[in-house]
Amino acid sequence: MKIFFINPPFKAEYGKFSRESRSPCIGHSGVLYYPLWLIYAAAYSKKCGYEVEFLDAPAKLLNKEKSLEIIKEKGKDVRLFVFNTSTPSIYSDCEFCEAVKEMYPDSFTVLVGTHPSATVNETFTFSKAIDGIARKEYDFIIKNLADAINNNEDLSVVKGLSYRKNGEIIDNPDAEHIENLDEIPFASEFIKEYLDVNDYVFPASALPEIQIFTGRGCPARCNYCVYPQTLHGHKYRLRSVDNVIAEFEYILKNFPEVKQVVIEDDTFTVNKKRTVEFCEKMISSGMNKKIRWLCNARVNLDLETMKIMKKAGCKLIIPGIESVDQTILNNIRKGITVEQIENYIKNAKKAGLMIHACYMVGNKGETKETMQRTLDAALRFKTDTMQFFPLIPYPGTEAYAWAKENGYIKQGYSHYLKEDGTLNCVISTEELSSDELVAFCAHARKKYYLRPWYILHRVKRGLTDFEDLKRSLKAFSRLKNSLFKKDEYNG
To answer: Measured between alpha carbons, how far is residue 400 from residues 4, 116, 119, 218, 224 in Å?
Structure first.
């Protein structure tokens, strides 16, 4: 039996749509995440003996017509089609599912991703061509669904599946989260066979890069974060350190062109003992001198761990700072303090780690004054790079519920992006309109990146690190149009 995994086309005329970014869009910086969740599910089905086809349409800038041509050519023996989705593309994703179903009416079509997991019944209303939705973490669900189809079993045996039966929607019990993540094959092995590393861009990384997960779930309770609330839960489940080390060895052997590994765990450093063990094995194996890596790291990370991470080849850490107003941090259940943020920045610089700082505006309690204080702090912190984004509340999150209950979201899913695929702001509060939030973020980027200190910083770093120089030049070429737009923020 053959399974076809599809990351559908969307707005290809404007650029590469990064569906698995935490805020799916066509980014000003040229970002394109690997469709990792889809990759892991496909790799697991292949491991279990299924023949697999895989299409990442955004990576190749394929439009609907070209994508359907490929599916027509490769989908003749397919009995199960799996469609990746996102909130801003959901209508288009369902229409694409319809087109494939029309081509192969006897196949079973199933949607996966954060949006249908959070809005099961609503999503089914978008198209009668949708046969099923694999809710939440779906690696095992897709394989078990394939088993049921292949063995002509009733679909009621597939935990985590919602499906149509006699005109009704049946919701099977939830599937358990996967505990032994070493069962899942390496993403890099699948990437080697099916994808091209040169198609993907993580702007904070040297290129080309490979993204992997070493764990799933996040113990933090941030009210806006979509993955823990809709897919993977709050328990941080880990691959064994030896398993992760083995994948680094595989990457070094099979991808000589790859410059950096991006560890995409929501917060890689939660378990200090495991983090240190991983670092020690990177050092003892000598891989710390052969390949760079970066990771997401909460601001409770201590200096001692930072130092061994640096020695182990970590080049950059990514904290979600969001705000330097403690009331706002409390409102969004961030679980951190302003004092921790200040110490984190100081310690990372002592350890020699670069920082990509993430800030968010528009949360509960936000005003023009609190936004300005956060920008002032960002300018003072002088991190290597930073980003300012308005809050994008996605279905299934507490932030979305808060915004809907207060009437702060008045538009539908298609308004999550502008016509050109770049992020739109769908939230307006009593204090700040969506236009003001967007204008402030553009203002913040301009203030940060076009000041003399930053330009000199990039030049100095580039003189000692050629890969960083190339990264900076590429990033500037992608961002220059947005940076030099007229500043429309009226603070």
So the answer is: 32, 15, 12, 19, 7
Residue 102 vs residues 92, 194, 245: alpha-carbon distances, Å: 15, 26, 45
The residue range of the domain holding 79 is 2-135+138-171
> Is 10 contained in some domain?
yes
Q: Please report whether residue 63 resides in a domain.
A: yes
Number of domains in the chain: 1
Q: Are 53 and 74 in contact (CB under 8 A)?
A: yes
pLDDT in tens, the chain (491 residues): 999 999 999 999 999 999 999 999 998 888 999 999 999 999 999 999 999 999 999 999 999 999 999 999 999 899 999 999 999 999 999 999 999 999 999 999 999 999 999 999 999 999 999 999 999 999 999 999 999 999 999 999 999 999 999 989 999 999 999 999 999 999 999 999 999 999 999 999 999 999 999 999 999 999 999 999 999 999 999 999 999 999 999 999 999 999 999 999 999 999 999 999 999 999 999 999 999 999 999 999 999 999 999 999 999 999 999 999 999 999 999 999 999 999 999 999 999 999 999 999 999 999 999 999 999 999 999 999 999 999 999 999 999 999 999 999 988 999 999 999 999 999 999 999 999 999 999 999 999 999 999 988 888 877 777 677 666 666 666 665 666 667 777 77
Give phi and psi for 270, each to the nearest 5.
Answer: -55, -45
User: Distance between CA 484 and CA 490 in Å, rounded?
Assistant: 17
Q: What angle do CA 44, 49, 54 make, to 5 degrees?
A: 55
Assign 474 to helix, strand or coil: helix
292-296 and 314-318 beta bridge pairing? parallel
CA distance 224 to 287: 36
Q: Which residues pair with 3 in a beta bridge?
A: 52, 80
Q: Determine the 3-state secondary structure of 97 from DSSP.
A: helix
Q: How far apart are CA 152 and CA 146, in angstroms?
A: 10
Q: Quick check: is 98 in a domain? A: yes
Contact 5, 195 (CB under 8 A): no
Conformational region of residue 322, where left means phi above 0, alpha means psi within -120 to 50, and beta covers everything else: left
- Give dist(CA 20, CA 40) in Å, integer: 13
60 DSSP 8-state letter: G
230 belongs to a structural domain: no
Of 139, 222, 210, which Cα lies nearest the Cα of 179? 139
Length of the chain equals 491
**Interatomic CA distance for residues 58 and 53, integer angstroms:** 16
**Rounded to whole angstroms, what are the CA distances from 67 to 56, 84, 130, 409?**
9, 14, 18, 33
The domain that holds 10 is classified in CATH as 3.40.50.2300
